[in-house]
Amino acid sequence: MFKKLKNIGDCGIVCDFGEEVNQEINTNVIKLFHHVKMEVLKGNLEGILNYTPSYNKLIINFDLEKINSSKILNFLKSVDFSKISLSQRSKKWVIPICYDFEMDLENMSKTLKINKEEIINIHLNTIFFVYMIGFIPGHPFMGDLNSKLFLNRLKTPRVKIPPGSVGIVEKFCNIYPYESPGGWNIIGRTPIKLFDTQKETNPCLLSPGDTVTFKSISKEEYKKLANE
Amino acid sequence: MSNNFFKILRPGINTTFQDQGRFHMQHLGVTPGGCMDLKSFLIANALVGNSKNEGVLEFAYQGPLLKLIKGNAKISITGNVFFQIIKSNKKIDGECNRSYFLEEEDEIDILATKESTYGYMAIEGGFDVKPFCKSISVLSRAAIGPNEGKKIKINDKINFKMNSKNKKSFSTKVKTNNNNIIRVLEGPQFDYFSKESHKNFFSEEYKISNLTDRMGMRLKGAVMKNIFNTNIRSEGITKGAIQVPADGQPIILLTDYPTIGGYPKIANVTSVDYNLLIQKTPGQKILFKLIKLREAEQLYKEHLNSISEIIKNIKEIN
Predict the structure, then answer these.
(1) What's the rounded Cα separation, in Å, for the pair B158 and B78?
(2) How far is the C-alpha of B260 from the C-alpha of B267, rounded, in Å?
(3) Which of 2.60.40.230, 3.40.50.1820, 2.40.100.10, 3.40.30.10 is the CATH number of A92-227?
(4) Is A204 on the interface with B (CB under 8 A)?
(5) Whole-prediction pTM value?
(6) Are A204 and A197 within 8 A, CB to CB?
């Protein structure tokens, strides 16, 4: 099912599913991710440290003291995709967003030549699919945005972005769970906690395959929810 | 919670609990994290007879000043560190890569790392802190780990498990490596960059900028011209990935790396040279050298063997 296998550094392997980004390819990536995870849990694959699914790739990281890339390549070549099943229950989420914390709305409006209200409207009317979680804990990559709002990353990433910031790049939308560096165009901010360390067995709110829509709230409502 | 504890009289710049890291969570966006310098970490634990993954205190540039309030402790300091042990107002200059027996009221003042960034303090029996998902490594950016996922601050109480009895001290010899050549492998988007950029990347020195921390190291030097695309589909990151955003200045992703990234990666630092790289300080210059995977694997084996040798050579001080 993957198109290419190659090493990334001396303790990583990339399973490349091609250049395209769509929900079908992403579902295959998630299938392989679950398969590798299960094999590791069953003790069939020693020395694996992490397995990171993204839009169209799965990266497997390992302990170079215990295993090397050629052994993992052999394992991956023997995977029979027709025998991997994916039982997935996707959830639907409504996430509140306040558009008054504008960082990039003004610039976006100028670049796209669309007024701010229209940008907000398109964003509110999109049903987002969660492709993957990553960058920092609990951080979702979601799609697919209307092509009218397609934008590139910022040329130089910001050193600091406030927690809860919602950003867009091309057809994708994200939410920054923590203050962090980043290069996305910030459209608004949510008071919702995406990663909760009090829940040790399941600290992450969203999962790949879930859907998300946004609900607009005022600055007052934001403050109220943020303090809860 | 044990009764033995230190009080923090000065926290230092970036003092955190670290072990070898938190694994099997990268798909939730949780980076493995862990100690920056595995070599110094392993030696610190070995000097006080701990297991290989016992949690330690990691500090950067300036370390903490700790006062032992309750219990006896055997500690070790590794890295290239200037520190003093204070026993009833008498100051003793500390030696790295050896253990010290401390009694109540003693202080340990970790003043600075010398021509390096990170240092470690291990304690016999380990610190008494609560792990999150099997690791005590603090990821301060995401408030994960013990001490509420934060750096150590003034007046914190640092509990440790064991009231030490054995006053014997141990030491070993560690050679410092001042080499500035960092060996790398081709990154997944190596071909995104022009031939001229490849030539520059492997022949011109890069200066480490002030924007450097546990997450990443920003470099200044020859501008990498991207001839294909300055953005890629966000994909999983590996420690030591060298990504190049549109401004053409490379960023090396370090231990607390973001788990997913969207900039093309020209190269990846080899495991063998990772320790050497992260101990470099802002202002220092490095030169990249391209090697092949098999060589990198072999060199890492030799690197691990050299650490085992250092640990085997730990001897009691008379």
Answers:
(1) 19
(2) 16
(3) 2.40.100.10
(4) yes
(5) 0.90
(6) no
Q: Which of A4, A40, A50, A198 to mutate to test the interface with B (most CBs of B within 10 A)?
A: A50
Q: Which amino acid is at B279?
A: Q
The CATH fold assigned to B181-307 is Cyclophilin (2.40.100)
- Residue that has been written with the tokens 């169209």 in this structure: A56
Decide: helix, strand or coil at residue B62: strand
Distance CA A214, CA B267 (A): 38
The CATH architecture one would assign to domain A4-83 is 2-Layer Sandwich (3.30)
The number of C-alpha atoms within 13 Å of A138 and in the hemisphere containing its C-beta is 23
Domain with CATH 2.40.100.10 in chain A: 92-227
Residues 6+ apart with CB under 8 A from B300: A10, A64, B270, B271, B272
Residues B55-113: tens digit of each pLDDT: 999 999 999 999 999 999 999 999 999 999 999 989 999 999 999 999 999 999 999 99
Minimal CA separation from A204 to chain B, in Å:
7
Q: Could you tell me where in chain B the CATH 2.40.100.10 domains are found?
A: 181-307
In the predicted model, residues of chain A with pLDDT beneath 70 are 86-89
Taking only the tens place, the pLDDT of each residue in B27-58 is 999 999 999 999 999 999 999 999 999 999 99
For A104, other C-beta atoms within 10 Å of its C-beta total: 19
Residue A11 has its nearest CB partner, among B31, B238, B245, at B238
